[in-house]
Amino acid sequence: MKRKNNFILQDVGGENLLVPIGQQVVDLNGLIILNASGRFLWEKLVEDFSMEDLARLLAEEFNIDRECAKKDTQAFINEIAGIGLLE
Amino acid sequence: MDNITICIADIAIELKSPLSLTELGIKKRYESFLEKIENPISKVTLTWEESMKHPEPPGRLIYNPGSIWRMYLSGNNYYAAINYINGEIKQTQALLQTNPEWNRMRLKEKRREGSWQSLLNVGAGELLFRTSILFSQGIVFHASGIDDNGKGIVFVGHSGAGKSTQAGIWSNNAGATVMNDDRIAVRFSGNQVFCYGTPWGGEKDIAKNHKVSLSAIIVLEQSKETSILSLAPPIASPLLLARSFLPYWDGTLIEKAVTNLNAIVSHTPIYLLRCRPEPDIIPLVRSVL
């Protein structure tokens, strides 16, 4: 899976904000705040990754166990897929 | 006719047009902003041209927020095709062409028969200003603004949050000047932050050419209980970004807007005011300035 390109990630007052660009604005009608792990996964998703690989990378980056990383990754992917942020 | 300089938020917009402000139907809107300042922070040239037919935008459509206008990109130039006439969708009435720096623009416009008013009066004028200010460390908020005895207060909020109501409450108070009840420009300059009235007012059409040092930005929320809370930048900034006018058609411009907002927020106290719109709110707001 891979993310759509029409968003830019901005540091707004210390928060990671996803700002839609172009037609995506009309479809989404809002801004999205990401936590540190969300930001990490979003940045990885510029390339095509499987859920399993993403969970492994998250576990390595944040030094957490694989099961917990899997759960977090699944929740994040469900969230962004639900609002149409994946290709 | 001679060129006309319209000055908004210390930005000089030089308008070149064969028609006078009266003939363009925009004199009332801009007459209090016709001043020549010695050292404007930036200069924008705007050439107005009459088009005998409905102007057609070149290039590809990059942003279509609805029925009023659309943004196209051709080469390095942006073209805003504006269609808004009394709320109806029509063919393009005005085509605003601009360079990527938003400081050299051309507006081609088809005049209508009868009583006519250039779209510079509202949509085109506002669009060019709120985008070009991004290059001068500024941003335009959906806000009303007060100069309270030399202290600038900007009340930001979506429609219905109480911006105009605040303007009304403060207008009856000695020493307070309402700058605008719907569109306020804020600029970071020389380690200071200033707020400015713009020509585009809201419900009460209050639109004064007025500048004051900014003391606080207040996010409005209607509530039965009254409270005022200081907001830390990570909470305040996304709220303010969502209540500003962002150039959603261009990622580079969005980055500018965010940079400007971050500079403003790091130099300005931000508060969340929950209240019913009543005059006794004034001492509470003054207590935090």
Task: Tell me about this structure.
The complex is a heterodimer of chains A (87) and B (289). Chain A is α+β, with helices and mostly antiparallel strands and 87 residues long. Chain A contains 4 helices and 3 strands; from the N terminus they run ββαβααα. Chain A has one domain. A 3-stranded antiparallel β-sheet of chain A has the order 1-2-3. In chain A, strand 1 and strand 2 form a beta hairpin. In chain A, helix 3 packs across helix 4. The N and C termini of chain A lie close together (7 Å). The mean pLDDT of chain A is 90. Chain B is an alpha+beta fold and 289 residues long. Chain B has 2 domains: 132 residues, no CATH class; 152 residues, Rossmann fold (3-Layer(aba) Sandwich). Chain B is built from 7 helices and 16 strands. In chain B, helix 5 packs across helix 6. The model of chain B has no long low-confidence stretch (mean pLDDT 91). Chains A and B meet through strand 1, strand 2 and helix 1 of A and helix 5 and helix 6 of B.
Cα separation of the termini of chain A: 7 Å
- Counting helices, strands and paired strands, the structural category of chain B is alpha+beta
Helix segment count of chain A?
4
Runs of chain A with pLDDT <50, length 5+?
none
Strand order of the largest sheet of chain B: 1-2-3-8-7-6-5-4
Sheet with the most strands of chain B? 8 strands, mixed
Number of helices of chain B: 7
- What is the average of the pLDDT values of chain A? 90
Distance between the termini of chain B: 47 Å
Going by helix content, strand content and strand pairing, the class of chain A is alpha+beta
Note the overall shape of chain A: globular
Task: Name the CATH architecture of the largest domain in chain B.
Answer: 3-Layer(aba) Sandwich
Mean pLDDT rating of chain B: 91
**Share of helical residues of chain B:** 10-25%
**Largest protein interface, residues of each chain:** A-B, 18 and 26 residues
What is the number of domains of chain A?
1
